[in-house]
Write a structure and sequence with these properties.
alpha/beta, 40% helix, 18% strand, NAD(P)_OxRdtase_dom_sf, Aldo/keto reductase family protein, NADP_OxRdtase_dom
Length: 245
């Protein structure tokens, strides 16, 4: 049976799109980043309608020549902070909205979040236990319809990750992993895993050798057996070269 890594075919590095607006990038600049990344083998993108850069990213993507060949990791939640329960219908509506906004037929990885207000494992684990069947049915329908290929949970905690990975239809975990944040490292060696924040959110600030630092951080994450890709916030074509190296 083909492994999920081969089946999904995510690029080794994924383009994180969260900071485009914060960096005051133009549509042309974002398109240049997208094209430069694709030329260097970075063909998977991570996006979310929660990011203030989302409209800029989606518009730039639609104008890029490689858009038909990009794979997508999309962040969505159900239940959201204000919700009392999981809703398969609401999550499906969110997926449909993303497909339309991104101009694609299928999301490769649905990054799924179970939220509460405030975030806490007691409420979230109760939701998981109480609505397990509805969650599994929703994921099955989304996959059978061709709207998504896989579901990776952003767990907020290791204990939640250990429980959610047991749901039928949840294919892996997406979480922080870097030299300083290693709490999810065992999971990255046990289950399909996508790494967020490989540089530990600003490691390169003041670096004397940023390219070497990127290389070292990427290699650290890649040593984890089941890590499929790591999401990098790339904000210029020059950074693309360092990450693709």
């Amino acid at each position: 049976m083909e492994s999920i890594g081969n089946w999904l075919g995510l690029s080794r590095i994924s383009l994180g799109t969260m900071r485009f607006q914060d960096k005051c990038l133009s549509k042309a600049a974002v398109q240049e980043i997208i094209e430069s990344c694709f030329e260097k083998g970075i063909s998977t993108h991570h996006s979310s309608h929660e990011y203030n850069s989302y409209s800029l990213y989606a518009e730039s993507l639609r104008g890029s020549s490689c858009r038909a060949h990009v794979k997508h990791i999309v962040k969505l939640s159900s239940p959201h902070f204000e919700d009392n329960e999981f809703s398969g219908g609401q999550l499906t509506k969110h997926v449909d909205r993303e497909l339309k906004s991104l101009g694609v037929d299928c999301i490769d990885v649905l990054q799924w979040l179970v939220r509460s207000k405030p975030i806490n494992d007691i409420d979230r684990l109760a939701t998981l236990a109480d609505q397990r069947e509805e969650m599994e049915e929703c994921f099955s329908k989304l996959k059978q319809s061709g709207k998504i290929k896989s579901v990776f949970s952003f767990p907020y905690s290791v204990s939640f990750a250990r429980q959610v990975i047991g749901l039928h239809g949840v294919d892996g975990v997406i979480a922080y992993l870097n030299r300083n944040e290693t709490q999810y490292a065992p999971l990255a060696n046990e289950h399909p895993f996508i790494a967020i924040r490989p540089l530990n959110a600003g490691r390169l600030v003041g670096s004397q050798n940023p390219e070497q630092d990127i290389f070292d951080c990427v290699r650290f994450v890649e040593r984890h057996r089941h890590c499929l890709t790591q999401i990098a916030s790339i904000n210029s074509p020059q950074q693309t070269t360092a990450w693709a190296g």
